[in-house]
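Weekly modeling sync, notes
Attendees: S.R. (lead), two postdocs, one rotation student

Agenda item 3: backlog of single-chain predictions. S.R. asked that every request posted to the team notebook include the full sequence so nobody has to chase files. The rotation student volunteered to paste the first one in as an example of the format we agreed on. Action items at the bottom.

Example entry:
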Amino acid sequence: MAKARKKSAEDNGATASSVKGGGLVRHQKLSLSIDLPSRRISGYTELEIAVPDIGIVGLHAENLGIVNVSVDGELTEFEYYPQNHSVDSERRFSSVTSAASAADIAGSLYLSALDKELVPNLLINCCKGFKVDSELQEQSAVDNSSHSSGETKQNVKLVRIEFWVDKIASGIHLQSNVLHTDNQIRRARCWFPCIDDNSQRCCFDLEFTVAVDLVAVSPGKLLHQVLSKGDPPRKTYVYKLDVPVSASWISLVVAPFQILPDPRNGLISHMCLSTNISKLQNTVGFFYSAYSHYEEYLGAKFPYGTYKQVFIAPEMAVSSMSIGASMSIFSSDILYDEKIIDKTIDTRIKLAHALARQWFGIYITSAGPEDEWLLDGLAGFLTDSFIKKHLGNNEARYRRFKANCAVCKLDNSGATILGSTSCKDLYGTQSIGLYGKIRSWKAVAILQMLEKQMGPESFCKILQAIISRSLDPSQISKTLSTKEFRHFANKVGNLERPFLKEFFPRWVGSSGCPVLRMGFTYNKRKNIVELAVWRGSTARLDGDALVNVNVDSEARDADVGWPGMMSIRVNELDGMYDHPILPMSGDCWQLLEIQCHSKLAARRFQKPKKGQKADGSDDNADVVQDTRSSSDSPLLWIRADPEMEYLAEVHFSQPVQMWINQLEKDKDVFAQAQSVAALEALPQISFSVVNALSNLLADAKAFWRVRIDAAFALAYTASEETDWSGLHQLIKFYKGRRFDDTIGLPKANDFHDIPEYFVLEAIPHAVAMVRAVDGKSPREAVEFVLQLLKYNDNNGNIYSDVFWLATLVMSVGELEFGQQTILFLSSLLKRIDRLLQFDRLIPSYNGILSVSCISTLARIALKLSAVIPLGRVFELIKPFRSTSSIWTVRLEASRALLDLELQYSGLDAALQLFTKYLEEEPSLKGQTKLGKHALRLCQIRGVGNSHDDVSIATLSVLLRLLDGPMSFNNVFLRHYLFCILQVFAKRMPTLYGVPRDKIYHVGDAETGDEHRSLFEAFVPSGEQLGLERPIDVDNPLDDDVVILNGPAEVHNELVVLDASNKGDDDDLAILEPPQIEVDADVPVILPVPEEAEILVIPEVIEEKQNLVAVPEPIKEIENPDIPEVPKEMNIPPVPPVRKEADTVSSNHERRMPVLKIKVKHSAAYSRGDETANQSVDKTHVAVNGPECAASSSVSVDAPQRNLNQNLEEVNSCHDPGSRVTASIGSAKLACEGDDTGKDLQCTADSSKIDKKFASLQSLSNLDDGRRGSTKEAALQGIEKEEKNGKDKKRRREESKGGGHRDDPKYLERKRLKKEKRRMEKMSKLLNMEGNTVSVTMPTTNTKSEEDVVRQPDINPATAQMVANEVPSTINKVAPTSVDARVEPVQPTPTPRFRIKIKNRTLD
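Predicted structure, as returned to the notebook:
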């Protein structure tokens, strides 16, 4: 066992600095008198504080009325600065002009509010009347004796504060006859004065006086109850908490509770209102098993002695779980009776996790913000040990597998870094929303990796050593840091220091997970497996890296690596063999050799029988045959990292038959889940795959969650190519177990087999997801769902069918109705309406049936908006928002109406309705869920076209909400409002990366500053509190909210982790990140549209040239010289993104193909234009309109330049009406014999166009009437070439002799000459006739090695030349366009367009 760490000088310095800064609380007593009918809370608190040298103590207090303050029994001076919320005014947010400015202001408001919360606002003068009694001196001497000898004797004072609670709104809540607190971040100050900081911990004495019929529940041990003799009589509950905790872990609940002692341990108490007592008895029957398991695993008794679980009404709770020291407050909607099946597993896990947080998180606390991940991970690890022991190893492994998949998908930015120093700059907000979930899962996965490295027994000893060290009375601090845990891993876990030195910085101090792509081949002659491995990372490069790093270089990939060695498990004919040969770090590509142990026996060739093929199969075999049969190799299947030793995203490629072998023969749920996902993702499904999935579905011995995955995989693989075999197998499986063969109708419900119940419950949902080629549900699927909904019978069943019916109703929402199935819609709607009316009369469990009906009606209305008037559906759902409805029903109705408003009126109208509902919602939990749903709508819809533009007025309303009292009372809502405003500006929905240098001073200065002269030295300024935060420009992801990539993916990836939390605040899904704008000189790299007619519009503004590519309606080109483009040359489109005028989009996804157009001039033509040196602007245009799926963008490199000229690249304004984004880079001049960049080439006659603009058009052959002008252009080109040669000679002579570079007269003449030349060319441009350009694709050219990259295929497009804008001195002229027929190219020197395609992939 590791020795206790000695107290270092740093710890002593930290203690001294805390005393010097604002005092150190030794002990605190809190006494409150609570009168619920009059809504009055008053009392006092006494704090024993080590006063700093300055003599002033700073405390936190909010929403309180301070009566008086005394120090050592004598009244003293104090100053109190409560937070004053600004009054709404139209001028307050007048600086909001766009979504970007609103996001900047939101970040400034959010950071400013969080900074203010750190500053004490109750300042007490402890200098006057300095008299220390003997008792305090003795206590101070005892405390100082435990410190090192170098510490000085501290000045301990007894500060008494009498107060009353002014606003019961935040931190403490009162509804009817129930009062309770919550542990929101920094809200303990809202119901008693304290030092509201996690670093300040002390013991507490608690006294609460309430009515005699009420029960006051608080942390600590209940010493006694005192009955007063007043009228009416009142009762005082006295608690004592001997374990030091921070003020945020002090909780209080007052209500007429029914107390249920645990029958197996009298120190455990469960409490709820009388209406839920039967549910409580059924729910907590298991709890002692979790309680005793933790004590046995950690080798110690529960540190607080007693433990209390309190359940209150769900609309009162801010979240589903609020934790305090030695007590936890839950929402009563997690309680269930003996008839409910679906809530059992998740409720037990939630209660067990709250108990684990008592050990790690409250009793053992983090040493700093960067160490919070460790305590969170240890609590999750302890919960997983309970799941493994009491719910089964399959449940634990499956949950870990799904959690690891979620982490690998979303751990791609700095927001998921666990132990970075920037954690303290996030102010605790990193635990809110989806990022908080990902961080928790990642922390647990890291600890499980360490357990795999050192062994379960060694890891258990580490946890026991941590607990035993904290139980030592001589150990004052009960904190744990990452450094200390690393020391335990070395001494107790016997892990080597070099491994730990590399492990923690890579996994804890950085973001990203390893990505391994593997494929193999079997060498029969050597009897070995040759395994090819590619290494990568899920972390994206930030904006600076995109600017300064060549993303195509392999040097970046070579740096990717993690410590450790991964095992490859080869299942052969002779057995299973593990080969730990794959290092987690190394080169990007690596080839490994694995020796096989099995040998193939030689066999004689047999002539195939009649009706069989040469390989022994018959004519009815699968269409897709496995190319690697068992006769060619001894391999059955191969697995990488079979024991989940690493948090890695592994893509393994092996033949279909090997996946089937793994599914059928490997009994590990991890292996089965992997094989189901691999078979589902196959591009072409064979009957053998369907049969394998069907066999797994019917296997009663298989784990029920994997069987559900197989059911959804069958639904995904069902198609006309397989004769709907997947659909038929699903229906056959269901009817074989639930239908009566004699009458062909469903039997009465019988749910005695719980695993079979979960599998059968998922079948209707899977059937509803089957799609035909046209995207509609087959008739058989619709009839099946309708039949189940129509003939459901629960008579004689001991279990409730409410979740069963809710799943059937949700299955109706999954259906897609076509012409053949729309006739069944009326029958389905009648059934749903009947269930809805029935649930109104007899409410179901938590209103789950009404919730599913409302959600399904909204989904059907959105899918059939062209047929069903949305207004009528809106009026149908609106009555469910009444306050008389169950809060879950009311909330679901609000969600559905927001979805309908988004579809009907756009995003701006939906947000206006959201603000209205937010003000009408009375519960904090409902406000939080509305904010989460609004964030989901913003991320799903995005801001890309005029229909979804958010008005300035709406942005101002959101900012007022962010800065108002509603956000202060609900920190979760405040965070979601901030995230919404960030999403509008295409930024990450997190506080990570928000720059602190952009501080917008909005509104008037804070009141009360003139009174701070007394304590000015104590109060730190905003600059002292502010810390610089690195800017991260990764793609944003959602908090608990997401765009779904498909129902199957949601079910298989994340929803199963919180399967029973339907309607709870833990619902999850995967998000498609919106685009981000980056202020950087980076070319826009976007995919090329398949068919688009490009108009190249020259725009002359001063001396800069802006090129904008505008798509025109698609036209057919009848030109035999243009080759046809193969159909398989498809390029995916990009979602519409609106760009700001001075920004360039930076896509952090994998790079799409790039189309670069390079201008190739003949030698004579290029020499004649060497004097035209002009800078070129990069322009880009947002892709707008509903045709975004068919439109895309190109990167066009086509400005003129000299051979030795470096072109200036800047950003310019864009045309909001265009649909193609064009990035203009530098062009490359090539001579006639150049062979580089031979992808696409076009020629253009520029006889009537000045050569400066020759790069803006392609060459088209003119008709017979224009051949003379072509010859004149050639002669003019020769004359200009001679003239330019003389000019060059004169300039060289002047440069040798010094010239007139510094002569102002010379410079003025030169400027006038350039201006004259520019005006002449502009006049020619405005008078010219446009030429139609045809683009030809060469097919015989060869490319150099650097150009041989995977190229996207593009369709022929036509380009026209028009004039767009001219300088202010010239009026706008309408563009003209004249088509010309194609004819042979003249020998006149002409410019040529060279289009070069590059495919850059960004891993």
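Discussion: group reviewed the output briefly. The mean pLDDT is 75.
Action items: rotation student to repeat for the remaining queue; S.R. to check formatting next week.
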